[in-house]
Structures
1.
Amino acid sequence: MLSDLKPIFGKVLVILIIVLIYYLITKYSNIELTEETIEPFEETINNEKNNYLKLKETYIKSNNTNNKTLDILYSNHINNEDNEDKSIIWKNKTLDQCIDTCNKLDKCIGFSRDNVLDTEPAQCHPRINSSHCYSNRKGDYKQMSNAINYNTYIKEDSHNTINNCIGDEALTLNRIIFIKTYSMPNKYIGYNNDARVQIIDKETTNFKLKCSFRIEAGKEGSGTVSFLHIDTNKYLCRDKNNDLIFKELSKNSTEHKQRCSFNINDGLTNGIILKSLPIEGEVVDKYITLNNNYLKIKSKSNNNKLDLFTFYIVDAIDNTTIITNKTKMNNSNNKNTIENTQTNNSNSKPNNSNTITETSNRKMNNNINEAFTINLDNNKSLPLYNNLFNENNNSIKIDNYLEDNYLNKNHKNDLMKITKKVNESILDKTLANSINKNQNEYNTIKALNREIESKISQDNLNINKTHDTISHHLNKMRLKDLANDYFFIKSVALNK
């Protein structure tokens, strides 16, 4: 009897094993599918957060609160049924909810939010521009006092926000900048072999050295800034004759620190005016102003033109187009080729540094190959060609090529992201509450340093590769020229 049942038990056992295997496969497949679905979702949320710059103790004031501003902000708003969101203030929203709402609006560049925890419901104030931005270092007393109650979150690609919202020490200070005049757009504050500060044309030789400053936290007084001239290592300073001069900072003199510190107030057309701190009991406010080719410290009056008091902070990396030395190369016969190549370079958006290098090499090779089509017997008509081998001629500089191709927006964004990582890592709450805070901070910064070093190393390799390519082709051009000269002279000798 039992022997008859054995085949049946065997079949049942096989069926059970098959069912078990099917169950396990289905179970783990669903788990993997769920994980694969969740991870990209979480990654998307984090990427959306990372696309915003957090400016601490900063508030952007709306130009107005009328229906025109609302119409601009919600011009592409799809969810018209959400009446709560269609307002100038988003109430009772967490940080994630405000980011999500702003991302749905093309005209929304960011928002100012109550200075509370990210997860705590609060008010968010969406903005369409950053023209009226105030912080703990920009604005009058009332504007600065109000700004400390907010944090502002701005999309990375928003135009000129970092310069409009001077204040946050991690993102807006300790940067290389230029100071541009309002009344003469081609003139910048700079050093020109004189103790007094002058205005310098952007076409001036060594413009970058003469006009590069680092904006820093003010040396004296809360809410102030100071400007260090990079090349001379001296600060913009007010002397006893109310001239603006370059001077080394004396750490022991409070008055000296006051003379090198300035408040930032609103100027004309989103510009700024730089207010000097009161010295020796002054009761009248005084500001930096143009005085012919120099700068003075004067009070404003009805007779003063505000345009002479107004300046712009210009980022040295983001605005490399103000360096126009490459226009001097347009004397060659292949002018159009060079200009077209530059246009193509500016319009292209490579995905990585390798692509940038390959594109640059290809453009350079095309220019060189086209130059070879020109009759070298008439090379005296080619200034560009002659200048390449003239060591005493400085009209063509290889650093302009490197600047135009490597100090672009893509690399600027990389630097901004690294700066943001440093800021977020140091200020991370879990890090702040850790018993081993100092060690954790050290490890975090060390890891970031390795990342930065790796990035710099890769960029150096790419630059060296480009340099080698350029040198190779320059040598090729030299050899071609020598060969042409040799055969020409040889033919003349044989004809004689």
2.
Amino acid sequence: MKKYVLSIDAGTTSSRAILFDKYGNQCAIAQHEFTQFFPKEGWVEHDPIEIWETQLKAIRNVIKLGNIKIEEIDSIGITNQRETTVIWDKKSGKPIFNAIVWQDRRTANICEDLKKNGKDKIFQNKTGLILDAYFSGTKIKWILDQDSNHRKKANNGDIIFGTIDTWIIWNLTSGTAHVTDTSNASRTLLYNIHKKKWDEELLDILDIPKAILPNVCNSSEIVGITNKSYLGHEIPIGGIAGDQQAALFGQMCVNPGDVKNTYGTGCFCIMNTGKNPVVSKNKMLTTIAWTIKNETTYAIEGSVFIAGALVQWLRDQLNLVKSATEIEQLAKTVKNNGGITFIPALSGLGAPFWDPHATGAIMGITRGTEKGHIARAALESIALRSRDIILEMEKDANTKFHSLKVDGGASKNNLLMQIQADLLMTKVVRPKITETTALGAAFFSGLSTEFWPSIDSINDIWEEDQTFNPKSSNLNYEIIDMWKKRVLKVIS
């Protein structure tokens, strides 16, 4: 009797494995961190072998912790840090270079040169993405350009590329499956999201041979079987999705206009836009959310660079609180922000401002300003930045969202969630299971094997923890009005 789906959550700092039962309950979790390498300023790398070894260790540990038989696992779903790039030798399985992480900025000059040559519109029109070092395409080009042998081997198909999902699946199947899904492919700068295939023109521009690219599959589809030697049993791999898309599905945002926001170090906000891609007029990213039974759902995505990181800054640099969880209580010591506006531009400002040179500011300080006012204004700033993005998404999609589903560490802050509801004037819904990224990967996998017979059957088990209903007040309008005026003062 199949009782569990195993979810692999291959993150930026750790490899995790989580067991879910038929009710979507988290039954066991194992996690192992891996090394972060910073060889030069702006460079971020991982060791792909270490990622694979820690991931395999996490899988084996979670089976022990769950005290289950391997035969009870129905299938495996995989979600991953999306744009991180690995190239490895097809025969030996050894990487030819460290994984270049999504945060890495070494290819910024390549992007600038392409923009100068007017190529940015071609990429945006075909991929829905802004031409930026964030994505995989220029990372692949950079690695191949390091050695003429790399390019020769690439042309012959002797070396192959993958994002972390592809790398782990290739290893789990002992090299029999070289695959990714549409959500991850759509983050490479190489995949035409309209035609749903690798784009020859984009490959030519970046001088990348098609032979190195993985086969693109559905997000919910059996793509391979694990080699028996690793886990003692063959298990089908039935789900793949990039982390934010997986979280969107894990939140059951399956209808156009459904929105989720993940409150982590930053905020990642994604809106389901249905069966047609929506081209953003506000520099949001158009992306593939998932593909099920060859039917693709699209989304638009915007990110806030600083969210939970702001609370960390108040803790570590200003010593305003001793732990991040104390921020809520401190903010509750005052009834309002005392006229304070916090502009959280500690790493510039993203959409819709897109000013990398903007700096942070605390405005409106008087003799009467207390620590609680600064704490409250900080929480408001996270909600206001999310509001900026969500309102632009609504305009782009020409749709009004009904509620905001939330997850991530900072979503446990009840005051922040209430502030978010008030400033958006819509309800904010937090689920019982907050591991929504891993849960989404599990759902995709379980759908492919009929562990869950339909999306409706998954919807039936999805449970909310708490709903925060908006409270209308003049104060909300004052906060928004002050924000609109003051944020313009930090834009360079």
